């Protein structure tokens, strides 16, 4: 079992931030919206993690933090769906649609 120390966690966060910035900066502008909507949806895994943390919380502070995590993760997942819906609306033909 790998023990995750604070320094190692900080190193992983910095490395993933650097890799993320490098990847996003090389994506063509036309693909930013689909990439953002997909990444927001994938962040829905945060909801699962927050629910697990909330289920194991024993103190009131832990339950409050877990509830906030579930609420923020759910908001992020819903935002991913909203962005995807708006993106798909951009590709619909305006002929015969709304006047």
Automatic annotation (TrEMBL):
It is a multi-pass membrane protein. Its EC number is 7.1.1.1. It holds the Pfam family PNTB_4TM. Residues 10-92 form the NAD(P) transhydrogenase alpha subunit C-terminal domain. One of its GO terms (molecular function) is oxidoreductase activity. It is found in: Cell inner membrane. Its main location: membrane. It catalyses: NAD(+) + NADPH + H(+)(in) = NADH + NADP(+) + H(+)(out). InterPro entries: NADP_transhyd_a_C. The chain crosses the membrane at residues 6-29, 63-83. It is an enzyme of class 7 (translocase). Keywords: Cell inner membrane, Cell membrane, Membrane, NAD, NADP, Oxidoreductase, Translocase, Transmembrane, Transmembrane helix. The transhydrogenation between NADH and NADP is coupled to respiration and ATP hydrolysis and functions as a proton pump across the membrane. This is proton-translocating NAD(P)(+) transhydrogenase.
